[in-house]
């Protein structure tokens, strides 16, 4: 189930030194997810809990038995993996989190309550293997299955090289993905004010006015189409000039081996560029970028 994600994370960890730590942690989390609940059956041979047992703060519809199971089984593994393989600041922060009310933390995340960045990371990483049932929202750009916001956008490969593939959105709260307009902002619904930001070349001249800070190092991102020698030609950002929000877009036509949820984690230079331009991502990814 996680084979493609593991293989892609291993590949990108070698290709992108700037994302090595993040992808190393992601690989450790893949091991946790796979061992905790491969295909709906616990690795220890026990059956997954049935819904309907217990009540609690922000309980998911149908009860919070899943949350109690996840707090007891998955959350400790996520914390251990993060402490062992995460970037130092995150590992230290997780090490300072006590056992506490794990089920309460997960229920708060499901209910959309305000959490600290570390709590949000722990909840999202744990809930990856837990079915989340939420009331679907009708708002455009929200997940038709659970009502969550989009995490990223990606383009399917097209048979015609002159035509872009169909645009898909991937939910930040559940595994669902859905087709969406190629020219409409998923955040505010604006159309016609889309700007594409892509890597223009790997080593811009230091004095280039388009390069922003003269001390910038690494890939240069700007309002251009990607170039063949780009470090990550499959990645770009699509922003809305009305609400100033953006999503990372992964183009499978440029890299058929891309796995959108993994490739998006390597887009840190694009995220930094977008922050410099005053744009905010619709939803930070699992690692908080």
From TrEMBL:
Location of region: Disordered: 199-225
Entry superkingdom: Bacteria
Keywords for this protein: Cytoplasm
Domain FdhE C-terminal: 234-287
Entry's Gene Ontology cellular component terms: cytosol
Any Pfam family: FdhE_C
BP-aspect Gene Ontology terms: protein maturation
Molecular-function annotations in GO: ferric iron binding
The keyword Cytoplasm belongs to this UniProt entry's keyword annotation: yes
rRNA processing as UniProt keyword: no
Biased composition (Low complexity): 202-215
Database matches in Gene3D superfamilies: FdhE-like domain
UniProt protein name: FdhE protein
Record lineage: Bacteria, Bacillati, Actinomycetota, Actinomycetes, Streptosporangiales
